[in-house]
What we know:
The chain contains 18 helices and no strands. It is mainly alpha-helical. It is globular and about 65 Å long. Residues 273-275, 309, 312, 350, 352-357, 386, 389-390, 393 line the site of aspartic acid (ASP).
Amino acid sequence: xxxxxxxxxxxxxxxxxxxxxxxxxxxxxxxxxxxxxxxxxxxxxxxxxxxxxxxxxxxxxxxxxxxxxxxxxxxxxxxxxxxxxxxxxxxxxxxxxxxxxxxxxxxxxxxxxxxxxxxxxxxxxxxxxxxxxxxxxxxxxxxxxxxxxxxxxxxxxxxxxxxxxxxxxxxxxxxxxxxxxxxxxxxxxxxxxxxxxxxxxxxxxxxxxxxxxxxxxxxxxxxxxxxxxxxxxxxxxxxxxxxxxxxxxxxxxxxxxxxxxxxxxxxxxxxxxxxxxxxxxxxxxxxxxxxxxxxxxxxxxxxxxxxxxxxxxxxxxxxxxxxxxxxxxxxxxxxxxxxxxxxxxxxxxxxxxxxxxxxxxxxxxxxxxxxxxxxxxxxxxxxxxxxxxxxxxxxxxxxxxxxxxxxxxxxxxxxx
Length: 416
Ligand code: ASP
């Protein structure tokens, strides 16, 4: 009997999950079958996410430290840094431009009556956070006692500490070779555990999709149809055309080859709505399927999972224009530029967890004086949009690692 490959299993799990979800959604919500189905899906789905999160912290820590330490071999640390950050800012800027362009063109929300949502808004209190507060909060969260960050699973603080550790290992050279060897073996062993967790991926992804599809609020989706269409349309355009095109033009990887290699990570991101939880899978895809060198991948991917979010940036900008339309406010060019910049900051600051973008969006709205409470309108449709934007967030990290590898290699060749 031919072996059913993991990829094929994951694809079958995806299709089955969507079908089962549709079936559950059609059942009477109070029926025993529906309740038990949702319970079982929640149980299995959460177990899968828990397993990914279990391995996430040791993986991020060892991967970044080893990644930075092995950049020494290249004498290229500086170039990798600059190219990585440059790519992140560039791809998020393109995503935001797409989202804002479409929102200006189609004007979702114009003519929709705000009163429709008053109920939702009444009982909602948004966490108020202005731009200066956000920046303070963000910077403050960067540096943390590494043990506390490890224990709390604070990925961004962990990334920063691991960067320091990696740099110290490089500076110390031979002196710390034992610690480096320990970290390298740590990385190897965590990747082995990731391989085991992935065996559960088909089932986990199926369960998560059952729940996602079955609990969609179809009426709300229809009401906000135009906005949903603008966001999904531009997110898909970015994910299916722009990013693969960059990967092809810069790194020479054809879209087909890219998708084949990236599939596991894209589906996991879609099902979990969490870039962080997906990170173990992303790293595996980038290194094993897309053949990015470990020292590049283990630097670019974990950093990208926490700060590079194309889908989130696009969403935050488009949503701000949507809410302005709902509120009957016309944003001038200057205000639109403020939205552009704050949407990028908000995406950088959003942790890679479900619905994080909703929280940091408050800041984008407030930057141009829109009511923060208005995000209540978006909450019912956020689960679905989050799935798509998280997949594109993760895709951006994968394309980023291909691009960085190519550009760094190129400059190496040119150097004498
Ligand atoms: N869920 C997204 C992610 O993990 C963040 C967001 O809410 O936009 O990438």
